[in-house]
Task: structure prediction
Amino acid sequence: MFSSRAALPAVVLTLAAGLTACTPVADVEPAPDASNPDCATVMVALPSELAGEQQRETDSQSSSAWGDPSKIILRCGAPVPGPTTEQCATVNGIDWILREDETTWTATTYGREPAIEVIFNPEEVSSSTLLVQLENSVSRIEPTRECISSNDLELPAQ
Result:
């Protein structure tokens, strides 16, 4: 006969496994370069909680989602942005190009290949918290370029 103390951990583990299975898998379109091996180093370093949302499983390579329903979607292997006049923000040494749509924002790394794209609703998720918390993961891809502003350009004297 076994003691009830030994049975309790087994019941807790079974219950925990059952509860985690309740969260449905997020349907995420894979990025074009999702199979890039550098994405793997980013994916294994992603936080399990991001901007207060719990990470959940996705159905595509090199992607992740947080929240149920998804509040944040991350895709590694997104198209690498070239020089642009779009808004660029540097957060803890990571350059991000920010694009605003009606209900969502897309932040795409600038100067890193493969590029990482993060899609979120700024009314539900703080962009500053989100981008700060991704620093450890995203910094695993070395930058090759950086954002500059028109103030950084040296124009010829007239």
The chain has a mean pLDDT of 86.
